[in-house]
Amino acid sequence: MTSTDTTSRTFSLIAPAKLNLFLHINSRRDDGYHELETLFTFLDFGDELTFSVTHTPSITVFGDVADIPLQENLIYKAAYLLQQHCHISQGAHIHLVKRLPMGGGVGGGSSDAATTLLALNTLWQCHLSLSQLTLLGLQLGADVPVFIQGHTAIAHGIGEQLSPISLQPKWYCVVHPGEHVSTADIFTHPDLKRDTAKLEGNWQQQELRNDCEALVKKLCPEVEKTLQWLLKYAPSKMTGTGSCCFVEFSTQQEAQRVLTNLPEKWSGFIASSATLSPAHTALAALFEQ
Ligand SMILES: C[C@](O)(CO)[C@H](O)COP(=O)(O)OP(=O)(O)OC[C@H]1O[C@@H](n2ccc(N)nc2=O)[C@H](O)[C@@H]1O
Ligand SMILES: Nc1ncnc2c1ncn2[C@@H]1O[C@H](COP(=O)(O)OP(=O)(O)OP(=O)(O)O)[C@@H](O)[C@H]1O
Q1: Same domain (yes/no): 145, 180
Q2: What number of other Cβ atoms are within 10 A of residue 58's Cβ?
């Protein structure tokens, strides 16, 4: 999955998906952002990014860039932010293979941005610490810090205060109901439940849910249908602000059975969870050679 050519300073990394195993919204802040508590885990499945350093300062992003204008692509934004911050005179060619559904709640854009910061910090020899990269990443989105820190974590604040934890690895079948959900639309909706009490004591002994789920089910009937269909196999949940839904298993076979039976109108994938982000694991392996 990962390749390198350190002599010409080119390498590929997987920008992994995340799942929110629960997502509680506690309050809305004056700046419009929400205080939340969520459990992030990484999946061993994601977009593939290939980075090459150039001797001129231009930054190009090519491949599966859909119709996102270059300067709005989170990959470009991340590269440009780092280049400016560290006064780098080199540039980069970045190739994207997009596997994660956009607006699917699996954090594809945020993961691409974080992976770009991690990769170019190395290739451009910026020598920023993970804490410094995290602060830069937060300027790009509330979900970017967890991908930079790279550890399964419970998040507080707007998603940037991270307490790392370890979980047993599981297998997931993740289903995309074919609908794109705008995160901003959900967070600004008057009907969003935003008054869940903060967790106290051991979170594993408490009732956990995704506070966005009821609203998204109401707005997107296909999400409701997907959650219902998945219930035949296991308790189903939605990730982030949707639209992807998932079920959890102990074995790959169980997850594969759901994917095999998936109605044609929906798409999906199976993946195992990883306590450490696969991007971090791969980056460490590349530079231990
Ligand atoms: C819902 C989650 O996916 C859970 O992982 C994330 O918190 C969303 O993170 P993200 O997509 O990186 O979010 P951003 O790009 O920073 O913000 C998108 C929009 O979501 C809203 N937003 C996001 C995070 C948060 N804690 N409160 C919010 O109200 C803001 O209105 C913002 O306009
Ligand atoms: N490289 C990128 N990959 C995906 N989306 C991008 C990218 N760059 C910019 N975007 C924009 O960001 C929006 C959100 O994308 P993303 O796939 O991260 O959503 P999401 O999975 O719902 O994220 P989250 O769970 O963090 O809210 C897209 O609709 C798209 O317009």
Answers
A1: no
A2: 10
What are the structure tokens assigned to 168, written together? 């047993």
155 and 194 both lie in a single domain: no
Q: What is the pLDDT of residue 152?
A: 97
Is the confidence at residue 1, as pLDDT, over 50? no
Report how far ligand 2's centroid is from the alpha carbon of 289 (Å).
33
Q: Number of folded domains in the chain?
A: 2
> Which positions are catalytic?
18, 143
Cα separation values, 209 from 37, 89, 137, 283, Å:
11, 47, 27, 33
Point out which residues pair with 249 in neighbouring strands: 171
Range of the domain at 31: 4-166+275-288
Verify whether ligand 1 is closer than 6 Å to residue 181 (CB atom). no
**Is the CB of 142 inside a 6 Å radius of any atom of ligand 1?**
yes
Query: Which residues line the pocket of ligand 2, CB cutoff 6 A?
Result: 68, 72-75, 102-110, 112, 143, 183, 240-241
Q: Please give the pLDDT value at position 59.
A: 98
Q: How far apart are CA 100 and CA 103, in angstroms?
A: 9
d(CA 283, CA 271): 20
CATH number at residue 262: 3.30.70.890
Q: Based on the domain organization, do 154 and 66 belong to the same domain?
A: yes
